[in-house]
Amino acid sequence: MKNLLKIFVVCLVPVSIAFAAEPSKSGLRKDRSNQPITVKSNDLAADNKGKIAIFTGKVVAKHGDITIYAEKLTVSYGDLKGEVEKVEAEIDVRIVQENRIGTAKHAIYQSREGLIILTGNPKVIQGSDTISGKIITYYIDEDRSVVSGGGDSRVEAVIHPPDKKNNVAPR
Q1: Whole domain around residue 55: which residue ranges?
Q2: Residue 68 belongs to a domain
Q3: Number of domains the chain is built from
Q4: What DSSP character marks residue 30?
Q5: Which residue, of 15, 113, 157, 170, has the fewest CB within 10 Å?
């Protein structure tokens, strides 16, 4: 699971909207910060004073409609009891949201901001469409993303046209 929080982005970035820059039509953002995060793993090391929990070994984390798979998951807590500031995934990261899958070596999920950042060969797949770059930032509730190629790499998108038989107007 070298693709931390590809949640994403994986995962979570609809390729067809990778080029869109407008916020969601409703303008409303799903606040997942009050929803529970369910995590399963082989091991857990918690540091209450440091406000972190580190899950290792075949980690599966579910938060609302987002599922993150990784070998290591670090949860950083906020000042309020139980408040999660961010979730960081590492090693074989795969993030799934509905029909989108994101993969990467590293991912950061900021639930309060509704944001997932994928790095380390990030790639997002939706159906037969794909997008990759150096950094993929996905704004979950706005259905928009920003893909950066960086200095030495480029953004690559493969977008297939819709199936023509589904676009035939009835007579």
Answers
A1: 15-167
A2: yes
A3: 1
A4: -
A5: 170
pLDDT (tens digit per residue) in 13-69: 333 223 222 333 444 555 555 678 899 999 999 998 999 999 999 999 998 888 999
User: How many CA atoms are closer than 13 Å to the CA of 54, on its beta-carbon side?
Assistant: 6
| DSSP per-residue letters across the chain | -BSTTTTTBTTB--GGGTT--SPPTT------TTS-EEEE-SEEEEETTTTEEEEEEEEEEEETTEEEEEEEEEEEE-SSTT-EEEEEEEEEEEEEETTEEEEEEEEEEETTTTEEEEESS-EEEETTEEEE-SEEEEEGGGTEEEEE-TTT---EEE-PPPPGGGGPPP-
- What does the angle CA 42 – CA 98 – CA 131 come to, to the nearest 5 degrees? 95
54: left (phi over 0), alpha (psi -120 to 50) or beta: beta
60 falls within a domain: yes
* Rounded Cα gap, residues 91 and 115, in angstroms: 19
Under DSSP, is residue 17 helix (H, G, I), strand (E, B) or coil?
Answer: helix
Residue-wise pLDDT tens digits, 52-67: 999 999 999 998 888 9
**Residue 55: DSSP 8-state:** E
Q: Which amino acid is at 124?
A: V
CA 126 to chain centre: 13
